[in-house]
Amino acid sequence: MKKWYRLLSALALLLLLSPPAFAAEIPDRSFESVDGKSVENAVPEEARELLDGAGIRQDLDFADCLKTLLSRACGRMGNYVKQSLSGGVKLFAAAVLCTLTAGLSERMKKMAGIAGTLALTLIAVGDMNTLLGLGRTTVTEIAAFGKVLMPVLAAAAAASGRIASSGAVCIAVMFAIDVIVCLIADVMAPLVWAYIALLTAGGVTENEGLFQLAKSLKNGVICALKLVLGLFVAYLIVGGVISGTADAMAVKTVKLAMSSAIPVAGSVIADAAEAVVAGAGIVRSVTGVFGILAVLAIAVLPFLRLAVQYLTFRISALLAAVAGAGALDKILNGLGDAFSLILALTGSCAALLLIGVFVSASGVTA
Amino acid sequence: MTALLREWILGIVAVSLLSACAQTLAGAASAKRVIGLISAFALFLTVALPLQRVDMAVFRTSFAQYERAYAHSAQDAATASEQLLCELAEESLAEYVTGLASARNIPCSVHVEVAQTGDGPLPSACTLTPEREISSAEAEELRAEIIAVLGTGNVSVRGR
Known about the structure:
The complex is a heterodimer of chains A (366) and B (160).
Chain A: H1 2-17, H2 25-30, H3 36-41, H4 45-51, H5 62-75, H6 77-102, H7 106-159, H8 163-205, H9 208-261, H10 263-322, H11 329-361
Chain B: H1 2-25, H2 29-52, H3 64-103, E1 108-117, E2 120-130, H4 136-150, E3 155-157
Parallel strand pairs in B: 2-3
Antiparallel strand pairs in B: 1-2
Helix pairs in contact in B: 1-2, 3-4
Protein backbone atom coordinates (compact mmCIF):
# COMPACT_ATOMS: atom_id res chain seq x y z
CA MET A 1 0.00 0.00 0.00
CA LYS A 2 2.80 2.37 1.00
CA LYS A 3 4.60 1.50 -2.25
CA TRP A 4 1.55 2.49 -4.34
CA TYR A 5 1.05 5.68 -2.29
CA ARG A 6 4.67 6.69 -2.89
CA LEU A 7 4.39 5.91 -6.62
CA LEU A 8 1.19 7.93 -7.01
CA SER A 9 2.69 10.87 -5.07
CA ALA A 10 5.82 10.76 -7.25
CA LEU A 11 3.69 10.76 -10.42
CA ALA A 12 1.62 13.70 -9.19
CA LEU A 13 4.79 15.61 -8.20
CA LEU A 14 6.19 14.97 -11.68
CA LEU A 15 3.02 16.41 -13.20
CA LEU A 16 3.06 19.51 -11.01
CA LEU A 17 6.79 20.21 -11.49
CA SER A 18 6.71 19.93 -15.31
CA PRO A 19 6.06 23.54 -16.41
CA PRO A 20 8.64 26.31 -15.76
CA ALA A 21 8.09 28.79 -12.88
CA PHE A 22 6.62 32.27 -13.50
CA ALA A 23 4.50 34.93 -11.78
CA ALA A 24 1.74 33.50 -9.60
CA GLU A 25 -0.99 35.75 -11.04
CA ILE A 26 -0.94 34.31 -14.54
CA PRO A 27 -1.88 30.69 -13.66
CA ASP A 28 -4.99 31.95 -11.83
CA ARG A 29 -6.17 33.63 -15.04
CA SER A 30 -5.13 30.63 -17.09
CA PHE A 31 -7.66 28.46 -15.22
CA GLU A 32 -10.43 30.49 -16.86
CA SER A 33 -9.36 29.23 -20.29
CA VAL A 34 -10.55 25.66 -19.61
CA ASP A 35 -14.00 24.44 -18.62
CA GLY A 36 -12.91 23.05 -15.25
CA LYS A 37 -16.43 23.30 -13.81
CA SER A 38 -17.80 20.74 -16.28
CA VAL A 39 -15.07 18.29 -15.23
CA GLU A 40 -15.81 18.83 -11.53
CA ASN A 41 -19.55 18.38 -12.12
CA ALA A 42 -18.94 15.16 -14.08
CA VAL A 43 -17.58 13.48 -10.93
CA PRO A 44 -20.33 11.29 -9.37
CA GLU A 45 -21.76 12.41 -6.01
CA GLU A 46 -20.21 9.64 -3.93
CA ALA A 47 -16.76 10.27 -5.39
CA ARG A 48 -17.11 14.03 -4.85
CA GLU A 49 -17.70 13.40 -1.14
CA LEU A 50 -14.47 11.43 -0.97
CA LEU A 51 -12.62 14.32 -2.66
CA ASP A 52 -13.87 16.72 0.04
CA GLY A 53 -14.39 19.75 -2.16
CA ALA A 54 -11.16 19.46 -4.19
CA GLY A 55 -11.38 21.17 -7.56
CA ILE A 56 -9.32 22.32 -10.53
CA ARG A 57 -7.56 25.15 -8.72
CA GLN A 58 -3.94 26.11 -8.27
CA ASP A 59 -4.02 25.22 -4.58
CA LEU A 60 -4.95 21.56 -5.29
CA ASP A 61 -2.81 19.47 -2.96
CA PHE A 62 -2.48 15.94 -4.28
CA ALA A 63 -0.99 14.35 -1.17
CA ASP A 64 -3.61 15.92 1.09
CA CYS A 65 -6.51 14.88 -1.14
CA LEU A 66 -5.14 11.37 -1.50
CA LYS A 67 -4.83 11.00 2.27
CA THR A 68 -8.42 12.22 2.75
CA LEU A 69 -9.67 9.92 0.00
CA LEU A 70 -7.91 6.84 1.36
CA SER A 71 -8.85 7.50 4.98
CA ARG A 72 -12.53 7.95 4.07
CA ALA A 73 -12.47 4.88 1.86
CA CYS A 74 -10.79 2.79 4.56
CA GLY A 75 -13.45 4.02 7.00
CA ARG A 76 -16.01 2.07 4.98
CA MET A 77 -13.95 -1.11 4.96
CA GLY A 78 -15.59 -2.27 8.16
CA ASN A 79 -19.03 -2.34 6.49
CA TYR A 80 -17.70 -4.23 3.49
CA VAL A 81 -16.01 -6.81 5.69
CA LYS A 82 -19.28 -7.32 7.64
CA GLN A 83 -21.25 -7.70 4.37
CA SER A 84 -18.77 -10.21 2.93
CA LEU A 85 -18.35 -12.14 6.18
CA SER A 86 -21.91 -13.51 6.19
CA GLY A 87 -21.47 -14.85 2.65
CA GLY A 88 -18.08 -16.32 3.54
CA VAL A 89 -19.46 -18.05 6.64
CA LYS A 90 -22.38 -19.49 4.64
CA LEU A 91 -19.97 -20.81 2.02
CA PHE A 92 -17.73 -22.41 4.62
CA ALA A 93 -20.71 -23.93 6.46
CA ALA A 94 -22.19 -25.34 3.23
CA ALA A 95 -18.85 -26.81 2.17
CA VAL A 96 -18.22 -28.42 5.55
CA LEU A 97 -21.80 -29.76 5.81
CA CYS A 98 -21.51 -31.39 2.39
CA THR A 99 -18.16 -32.89 3.33
CA LEU A 100 -19.64 -34.36 6.51
CA THR A 101 -22.62 -35.75 4.54
CA ALA A 102 -20.31 -37.22 1.90
CA GLY A 103 -18.47 -39.14 4.59
CA LEU A 104 -21.62 -41.04 5.61
CA SER A 105 -21.57 -43.49 2.67
CA GLU A 106 -20.28 -43.92 -0.89
CA ARG A 107 -23.72 -43.30 -2.39
CA MET A 108 -24.09 -40.10 -0.39
CA LYS A 109 -20.70 -38.89 -1.69
CA LYS A 110 -21.94 -38.17 -5.21
CA MET A 111 -25.22 -36.60 -4.04
CA ALA A 112 -23.34 -34.47 -1.50
CA GLY A 113 -20.99 -33.32 -4.26
CA ILE A 114 -23.91 -32.24 -6.45
CA ALA A 115 -25.74 -30.61 -3.56
CA GLY A 116 -22.58 -28.85 -2.44
CA THR A 117 -21.89 -27.47 -5.93
CA LEU A 118 -25.44 -26.16 -6.28
CA ALA A 119 -25.49 -24.74 -2.74
CA LEU A 120 -22.18 -22.90 -3.18
CA THR A 121 -23.31 -21.49 -6.53
CA LEU A 122 -26.63 -20.31 -5.07
CA ILE A 123 -24.88 -18.62 -2.14
CA ALA A 124 -22.39 -16.92 -4.48
CA VAL A 125 -24.92 -15.87 -7.14
CA GLY A 126 -26.60 -13.21 -4.99
CA ASP A 127 -23.29 -11.48 -4.18
CA MET A 128 -22.08 -12.01 -7.75
CA ASN A 129 -25.15 -10.24 -9.15
CA THR A 130 -24.68 -7.26 -6.82
CA LEU A 131 -20.98 -6.98 -7.48
CA LEU A 132 -21.29 -7.43 -11.24
CA GLY A 133 -23.84 -4.62 -11.22
CA LEU A 134 -21.44 -2.54 -9.10
CA GLY A 135 -18.60 -3.27 -11.54
CA ARG A 136 -20.69 -2.25 -14.55
CA THR A 137 -21.88 0.94 -12.83
CA THR A 138 -18.29 1.83 -11.91
CA VAL A 139 -17.07 1.23 -15.46
CA THR A 140 -19.93 3.35 -16.85
CA GLU A 141 -19.15 6.18 -14.37
CA ILE A 142 -15.43 6.06 -15.20
CA ALA A 143 -16.23 6.13 -18.93
CA ALA A 144 -18.68 9.05 -18.57
CA PHE A 145 -16.15 11.03 -16.52
CA GLY A 146 -13.37 10.21 -18.99
CA LYS A 147 -15.42 11.54 -21.90
CA VAL A 148 -15.77 14.92 -20.16
CA LEU A 149 -12.22 15.05 -18.76
CA MET A 150 -10.21 14.02 -21.82
CA PRO A 151 -11.32 16.81 -24.23
CA VAL A 152 -10.75 19.46 -21.50
CA LEU A 153 -7.36 17.99 -20.58
CA ALA A 154 -6.38 17.69 -24.24
CA ALA A 155 -7.44 21.32 -24.84
CA ALA A 156 -5.25 22.44 -21.91
CA ALA A 157 -2.40 20.33 -23.29
CA ALA A 158 -2.87 21.90 -26.74
CA ALA A 159 -2.84 25.39 -25.19
CA SER A 160 0.46 24.52 -23.45
CA GLY A 161 2.12 23.64 -26.75
CA ARG A 162 1.31 19.93 -27.19
CA ILE A 163 -0.90 20.50 -30.21
CA ALA A 164 -0.20 17.35 -32.21
CA SER A 165 0.03 14.85 -29.36
CA SER A 166 -2.92 16.08 -27.27
CA GLY A 167 -5.49 15.32 -29.96
CA ALA A 168 -4.03 11.90 -30.67
CA VAL A 169 -3.98 10.92 -26.98
CA CYS A 170 -7.50 12.28 -26.36
CA ILE A 171 -9.00 10.36 -29.29
CA ALA A 172 -7.10 7.18 -28.36
CA VAL A 173 -8.29 7.30 -24.74
CA MET A 174 -11.91 8.00 -25.66
CA PHE A 175 -11.91 5.22 -28.26
CA ALA A 176 -10.27 2.71 -25.90
CA ILE A 177 -12.76 3.58 -23.13
CA ASP A 178 -15.67 3.01 -25.52
CA VAL A 179 -14.19 -0.33 -26.61
CA ILE A 180 -13.69 -1.49 -23.02
CA VAL A 181 -17.17 -0.34 -21.92
CA CYS A 182 -18.74 -2.14 -24.91
CA LEU A 183 -16.73 -5.28 -24.25
CA ILE A 184 -17.51 -5.26 -20.53
CA ALA A 185 -21.23 -4.52 -20.84
CA ASP A 186 -22.02 -6.62 -23.94
CA VAL A 187 -19.55 -9.48 -23.79
CA MET A 188 -17.62 -9.90 -20.57
CA ALA A 189 -20.46 -9.52 -18.05
CA PRO A 190 -22.55 -12.28 -19.73
CA LEU A 191 -19.35 -14.34 -20.00
CA VAL A 192 -18.91 -14.19 -16.22
CA TRP A 193 -22.36 -15.77 -15.86
CA ALA A 194 -21.52 -18.33 -18.53
CA TYR A 195 -18.31 -19.10 -16.61
CA ILE A 196 -20.27 -19.71 -13.40
CA ALA A 197 -22.82 -21.86 -15.30
CA LEU A 198 -20.02 -23.98 -16.78
CA LEU A 199 -18.36 -24.40 -13.37
CA THR A 200 -21.65 -25.47 -11.79
CA ALA A 201 -22.49 -27.87 -14.62
CA GLY A 202 -18.96 -29.24 -14.51
CA GLY A 203 -19.25 -29.80 -10.76
CA VAL A 204 -22.65 -31.49 -11.08
CA THR A 205 -21.88 -33.68 -14.13
CA GLU A 206 -18.18 -34.15 -13.24
CA ASN A 207 -17.40 -33.32 -16.87
CA GLU A 208 -13.78 -32.20 -17.15
CA GLY A 209 -14.49 -30.65 -20.58
CA LEU A 210 -16.81 -28.07 -19.01
CA PHE A 211 -14.14 -27.10 -16.48
CA GLN A 212 -11.69 -26.69 -19.36
CA LEU A 213 -14.18 -24.55 -21.29
CA ALA A 214 -14.73 -22.41 -18.17
CA LYS A 215 -10.98 -21.99 -17.77
CA SER A 216 -10.69 -21.03 -21.47
CA LEU A 217 -13.45 -18.43 -21.04
CA LYS A 218 -11.65 -16.91 -18.07
CA ASN A 219 -8.33 -16.87 -19.92
CA GLY A 220 -10.07 -15.39 -22.98
CA VAL A 221 -11.47 -12.48 -20.93
CA ILE A 222 -8.09 -11.81 -19.31
CA CYS A 223 -6.29 -12.02 -22.69
CA ALA A 224 -8.78 -9.63 -24.27
CA LEU A 225 -8.22 -7.11 -21.46
CA LYS A 226 -4.45 -7.46 -21.72
CA LEU A 227 -4.65 -7.01 -25.50
CA VAL A 228 -6.73 -3.83 -25.29
CA LEU A 229 -4.52 -2.33 -22.57
CA GLY A 230 -1.32 -3.41 -24.30
CA LEU A 231 -2.31 -1.96 -27.67
CA PHE A 232 -3.47 1.24 -25.99
CA VAL A 233 -0.20 1.74 -24.08
CA ALA A 234 1.87 0.88 -27.16
CA TYR A 235 -0.05 3.44 -29.23
CA LEU A 236 0.44 6.10 -26.54
CA ILE A 237 4.18 5.42 -26.34
CA VAL A 238 4.78 5.39 -30.10
CA GLY A 239 2.33 8.16 -30.97
CA GLY A 240 3.47 10.32 -28.05
CA VAL A 241 7.16 10.12 -29.02
CA ILE A 242 6.50 11.07 -32.68
CA SER A 243 4.00 13.87 -32.10
CA GLY A 244 5.76 15.12 -28.95
CA THR A 245 8.93 15.82 -30.97
CA ALA A 246 6.89 17.73 -33.57
CA ASP A 247 5.24 19.78 -30.80
CA ALA A 248 8.61 20.79 -29.27
CA MET A 249 9.91 21.95 -32.68
CA ALA A 250 6.70 23.88 -33.40
CA VAL A 251 6.82 25.76 -30.08
CA LYS A 252 10.51 26.72 -30.60
CA THR A 253 9.77 27.95 -34.15
CA VAL A 254 6.82 30.10 -33.05
CA LYS A 255 8.85 31.72 -30.24
CA LEU A 256 11.71 32.57 -32.62
CA ALA A 257 9.34 34.05 -35.23
CA MET A 258 7.57 36.25 -32.69
CA SER A 259 10.81 37.58 -31.15
CA SER A 260 12.29 38.59 -34.51
CA ALA A 261 9.11 40.21 -35.98
CA ILE A 262 9.28 43.47 -33.99
CA PRO A 263 12.45 43.97 -31.93
CA VAL A 264 11.11 45.24 -28.59
CA ALA A 265 7.37 44.64 -28.67
CA GLY A 266 8.01 41.26 -30.23
CA SER A 267 10.14 40.07 -27.32
CA VAL A 268 7.56 41.40 -24.82
CA ILE A 269 4.79 39.54 -26.64
CA ALA A 270 6.99 36.43 -26.89
CA ASP A 271 7.51 36.57 -23.10
CA ALA A 272 3.75 36.97 -22.60
CA ALA A 273 3.15 34.01 -24.93
CA GLU A 274 5.65 31.94 -22.94
CA ALA A 275 3.83 32.91 -19.75
CA VAL A 276 0.48 31.89 -21.28
CA VAL A 277 1.95 28.57 -22.43
CA ALA A 278 3.51 28.00 -19.02
CA GLY A 279 0.21 28.91 -17.34
CA ALA A 280 -1.58 26.45 -19.62
CA GLY A 281 1.01 23.89 -18.57
CA ILE A 282 0.10 24.46 -14.92
CA VAL A 283 -3.59 24.15 -15.79
CA ARG A 284 -2.88 20.95 -17.73
CA SER A 285 -0.97 19.47 -14.79
CA VAL A 286 -3.60 20.48 -12.20
CA THR A 287 -6.41 19.14 -14.42
CA GLY A 288 -4.45 15.91 -14.79
CA VAL A 289 -3.93 15.61 -11.03
CA PHE A 290 -7.62 16.29 -10.41
CA GLY A 291 -8.47 13.70 -13.06
CA ILE A 292 -6.29 11.10 -11.35
CA LEU A 293 -7.84 11.89 -7.95
CA ALA A 294 -11.36 11.72 -9.40
CA VAL A 295 -10.76 8.36 -11.11
CA LEU A 296 -9.32 6.99 -7.87
CA ALA A 297 -12.31 8.37 -5.97
CA ILE A 298 -14.77 6.73 -8.41
CA ALA A 299 -12.98 3.38 -8.42
CA VAL A 300 -11.71 3.04 -4.84
CA LEU A 301 -14.94 2.06 -3.05
CA PRO A 302 -16.14 -0.52 -5.59
CA PHE A 303 -12.59 -1.83 -5.86
CA LEU A 304 -12.33 -2.20 -2.08
CA ARG A 305 -15.70 -3.94 -1.94
CA LEU A 306 -14.73 -6.34 -4.71
CA ALA A 307 -11.32 -6.96 -3.16
CA VAL A 308 -12.81 -7.69 0.27
CA GLN A 309 -15.38 -10.05 -1.30
CA TYR A 310 -12.66 -11.80 -3.29
CA LEU A 311 -10.43 -12.21 -0.23
CA THR A 312 -13.34 -13.51 1.85
CA PHE A 313 -14.08 -16.07 -0.84
CA ARG A 314 -10.48 -17.20 -1.01
CA ILE A 315 -10.20 -17.48 2.76
CA SER A 316 -13.47 -19.45 2.92
CA ALA A 317 -12.20 -21.79 0.20
CA LEU A 318 -8.91 -22.26 2.04
CA LEU A 319 -10.63 -22.97 5.35
CA ALA A 320 -13.07 -25.37 3.65
CA ALA A 321 -10.13 -27.21 2.04
CA VAL A 322 -8.39 -27.41 5.41
CA ALA A 323 -11.62 -28.77 6.92
CA GLY A 324 -11.62 -31.55 4.33
CA ALA A 325 -13.88 -30.21 1.56
CA GLY A 326 -11.30 -30.95 -1.12
CA ALA A 327 -13.95 -32.27 -3.55
CA LEU A 328 -15.54 -28.81 -3.75
CA ASP A 329 -12.17 -27.14 -4.21
CA LYS A 330 -12.67 -26.59 -7.97
CA ILE A 331 -16.03 -24.86 -7.62
CA LEU A 332 -14.84 -22.72 -4.69
CA ASN A 333 -11.70 -21.57 -6.50
CA GLY A 334 -13.69 -21.07 -9.69
CA LEU A 335 -16.21 -18.82 -7.94
CA GLY A 336 -13.33 -16.89 -6.42
CA ASP A 337 -11.90 -16.48 -9.93
CA ALA A 338 -15.24 -15.09 -11.10
CA PHE A 339 -14.92 -12.34 -8.48
CA SER A 340 -11.37 -11.69 -9.59
CA LEU A 341 -12.64 -11.33 -13.19
CA ILE A 342 -15.04 -8.57 -12.13
CA LEU A 343 -12.15 -6.96 -10.22
CA ALA A 344 -9.97 -7.18 -13.35
CA LEU A 345 -12.67 -5.63 -15.57
CA THR A 346 -13.20 -2.66 -13.23
CA GLY A 347 -9.49 -2.23 -12.62
CA SER A 348 -8.66 -2.29 -16.35
CA CYS A 349 -11.07 0.53 -17.14
CA ALA A 350 -9.70 2.65 -14.28
CA ALA A 351 -6.08 1.87 -15.27
CA LEU A 352 -6.76 2.79 -18.90
CA LEU A 353 -8.14 6.20 -17.99
CA LEU A 354 -5.37 6.83 -15.41
CA ILE A 355 -2.69 6.05 -18.00
CA GLY A 356 -4.39 8.28 -20.57
CA VAL A 357 -4.71 11.15 -18.08
CA PHE A 358 -1.08 10.85 -17.02
CA VAL A 359 0.21 10.79 -20.61
CA SER A 360 -1.95 13.82 -21.51
CA ALA A 361 -0.96 15.78 -18.43
CA SER A 362 2.78 15.04 -18.25
CA GLY A 363 4.88 17.89 -19.65
CA VAL A 364 7.04 18.25 -22.75
CA THR A 365 9.60 21.03 -22.28
CA ALA A 366 10.14 23.25 -25.32
CA MET B 1 -20.01 -6.65 -33.46
CA THR B 2 -20.00 -7.15 -29.69
CA ALA B 3 -23.55 -8.53 -29.83
CA LEU B 4 -22.46 -11.06 -32.48
CA LEU B 5 -19.42 -12.05 -30.37
CA ARG B 6 -21.59 -12.44 -27.26
CA GLU B 7 -24.15 -14.61 -29.08
CA TRP B 8 -21.41 -16.75 -30.59
CA ILE B 9 -19.68 -17.45 -27.27
CA LEU B 10 -22.94 -17.98 -25.37
CA GLY B 11 -24.10 -20.34 -28.12
CA ILE B 12 -20.96 -22.46 -27.70
CA VAL B 13 -21.45 -22.46 -23.90
CA ALA B 14 -25.15 -23.42 -24.21
CA VAL B 15 -24.45 -26.32 -26.59
CA SER B 16 -21.61 -27.54 -24.33
CA LEU B 17 -23.89 -27.45 -21.28
CA LEU B 18 -26.72 -29.26 -23.07
CA SER B 19 -24.39 -31.96 -24.39
CA ALA B 20 -22.84 -32.46 -20.92
CA CYS B 21 -26.33 -32.80 -19.37
CA ALA B 22 -27.47 -35.18 -22.13
CA GLN B 23 -24.38 -37.37 -21.68
CA THR B 24 -24.89 -37.45 -17.92
CA LEU B 25 -28.54 -38.43 -18.27
CA ALA B 26 -27.82 -41.09 -20.91
CA GLY B 27 -27.58 -44.53 -19.33
CA ALA B 28 -26.06 -46.93 -21.80
CA ALA B 29 -22.54 -46.49 -23.13
CA SER B 30 -23.76 -46.74 -26.76
CA ALA B 31 -26.29 -43.95 -26.14
CA LYS B 32 -23.50 -41.84 -24.65
CA ARG B 33 -21.37 -42.39 -27.78
CA VAL B 34 -24.25 -41.37 -30.05
CA ILE B 35 -25.01 -38.30 -27.94
CA GLY B 36 -21.32 -37.43 -27.92
CA LEU B 37 -21.21 -37.60 -31.72
CA ILE B 38 -24.32 -35.46 -32.13
CA SER B 39 -22.95 -32.97 -29.56
CA ALA B 40 -19.65 -32.68 -31.44
CA PHE B 41 -21.51 -32.01 -34.69
CA ALA B 42 -23.79 -29.46 -33.02
CA LEU B 43 -20.77 -27.73 -31.45
CA PHE B 44 -19.03 -27.57 -34.81
CA LEU B 45 -22.10 -25.95 -36.38
CA THR B 46 -22.39 -23.52 -33.47
CA VAL B 47 -18.78 -22.45 -33.96
CA ALA B 48 -18.77 -22.33 -37.79
CA LEU B 49 -22.18 -20.97 -38.81
CA PRO B 50 -22.02 -17.53 -37.11
CA LEU B 51 -18.64 -16.88 -38.78
CA GLN B 52 -20.47 -16.80 -42.13
CA ARG B 53 -22.62 -13.91 -40.89
CA VAL B 54 -19.63 -11.71 -40.01
CA ASP B 55 -19.72 -8.52 -42.08
CA MET B 56 -16.26 -6.96 -42.45
CA ALA B 57 -17.89 -3.52 -42.63
CA VAL B 58 -18.50 -3.61 -38.86
CA PHE B 59 -14.74 -3.44 -38.25
CA ARG B 60 -14.54 -0.01 -39.88
CA THR B 61 -14.45 2.51 -37.06
CA SER B 62 -15.34 6.15 -37.24
CA PHE B 63 -13.40 8.49 -35.01
CA ALA B 64 -15.51 11.47 -36.09
CA GLN B 65 -17.39 11.80 -32.77
CA TYR B 66 -14.12 11.81 -30.76
CA GLU B 67 -12.50 14.31 -33.14
CA ARG B 68 -15.53 16.59 -32.82
CA ALA B 69 -15.45 16.49 -28.99
CA TYR B 70 -11.74 17.28 -28.97
CA ALA B 71 -12.00 20.00 -31.65
CA HIS B 72 -14.84 21.77 -29.81
CA SER B 73 -12.94 21.81 -26.51
CA ALA B 74 -9.64 22.77 -28.16
CA GLN B 75 -11.28 25.65 -30.03
CA ASP B 76 -12.75 27.06 -26.79
CA ALA B 77 -9.41 26.77 -25.01
CA ALA B 78 -7.55 28.32 -27.97
CA THR B 79 -9.92 31.30 -28.05
CA ALA B 80 -9.56 31.82 -24.30
CA SER B 81 -5.75 31.48 -24.52
CA GLU B 82 -5.56 34.05 -27.35
CA GLN B 83 -7.66 36.44 -25.30
CA LEU B 84 -5.43 35.95 -22.26
CA LEU B 85 -2.31 36.43 -24.40
CA CYS B 86 -3.69 39.70 -25.79
CA GLU B 87 -4.52 40.90 -22.26
CA LEU B 88 -1.06 40.00 -20.91
CA ALA B 89 0.65 41.58 -23.92
CA GLU B 90 -1.41 44.78 -23.46
CA GLU B 91 -0.47 44.94 -19.76
CA SER B 92 3.23 44.25 -20.41
CA LEU B 93 3.46 46.74 -23.28
CA ALA B 94 1.58 49.40 -21.31
CA GLU B 95 4.08 48.90 -18.48
CA TYR B 96 6.99 49.19 -20.94
CA VAL B 97 5.62 52.39 -22.52
CA THR B 98 5.00 53.86 -19.05
CA GLY B 99 8.65 53.15 -18.35
CA LEU B 100 9.67 54.97 -21.54
CA ALA B 101 7.60 57.98 -20.52
CA SER B 102 9.01 57.90 -16.95
CA ALA B 103 12.54 57.96 -18.40
CA ARG B 104 11.57 61.31 -20.01
CA ASN B 105 10.07 62.45 -16.70
CA ILE B 106 6.52 62.27 -18.04
CA PRO B 107 4.14 60.55 -15.58
CA CYS B 108 1.23 59.13 -17.53
CA SER B 109 -1.38 56.44 -17.91
CA VAL B 110 -1.08 54.19 -20.95
CA HIS B 111 -3.56 52.00 -22.73
CA VAL B 112 -2.24 49.59 -25.40
CA GLU B 113 -4.45 47.52 -27.67
CA VAL B 114 -3.18 44.21 -29.01
CA ALA B 115 -5.07 42.40 -31.77
CA GLN B 116 -4.70 38.95 -33.28
CA THR B 117 -3.38 39.03 -36.84
CA GLY B 118 -2.18 36.39 -39.26
CA ASP B 119 1.32 36.79 -37.80
CA GLY B 120 0.09 36.43 -34.22
CA PRO B 121 -0.79 39.08 -31.61
CA LEU B 122 0.55 42.52 -32.58
CA PRO B 123 0.04 45.98 -31.03
CA SER B 124 -2.61 47.88 -32.97
CA ALA B 125 -3.00 51.10 -31.01
CA CYS B 126 -1.59 53.01 -28.06
CA THR B 127 -3.12 55.91 -26.14
CA LEU B 128 -0.97 57.85 -23.69
CA THR B 129 -2.52 60.39 -21.29
CA PRO B 130 0.16 62.50 -19.53
CA GLU B 131 -0.54 63.61 -15.98
CA ARG B 132 1.23 66.96 -16.48
CA GLU B 133 1.47 69.49 -19.26
CA ILE B 134 4.00 68.58 -21.91
CA SER B 135 5.18 70.52 -24.91
CA SER B 136 4.33 69.37 -28.42
CA ALA B 137 8.04 68.66 -29.06
CA GLU B 138 8.18 66.36 -26.03
CA ALA B 139 4.95 64.69 -27.15
CA GLU B 140 6.29 64.21 -30.68
CA GLU B 141 9.59 62.73 -29.47
CA LEU B 142 7.78 60.35 -27.11
CA ARG B 143 5.34 59.39 -29.88
CA ALA B 144 8.18 58.59 -32.28
CA GLU B 145 9.89 56.43 -29.66
CA ILE B 146 6.68 54.54 -28.94
CA ILE B 147 6.07 53.98 -32.69
CA ALA B 148 9.59 52.54 -33.07
CA VAL B 149 9.01 50.22 -30.09
CA LEU B 150 5.48 49.05 -30.88
CA GLY B 151 5.83 48.90 -34.66
CA THR B 152 2.47 50.62 -35.21
CA GLY B 153 1.74 54.19 -36.29
CA ASN B 154 -1.56 54.35 -34.40
CA VAL B 155 -0.12 56.12 -31.33
CA SER B 156 -1.87 59.13 -29.78
CA VAL B 157 -0.52 61.33 -27.02
CA ARG B 158 -3.47 63.19 -25.57
CA GLY B 159 -2.94 66.75 -24.43
CA ARG B 160 -3.77 67.63 -20.84
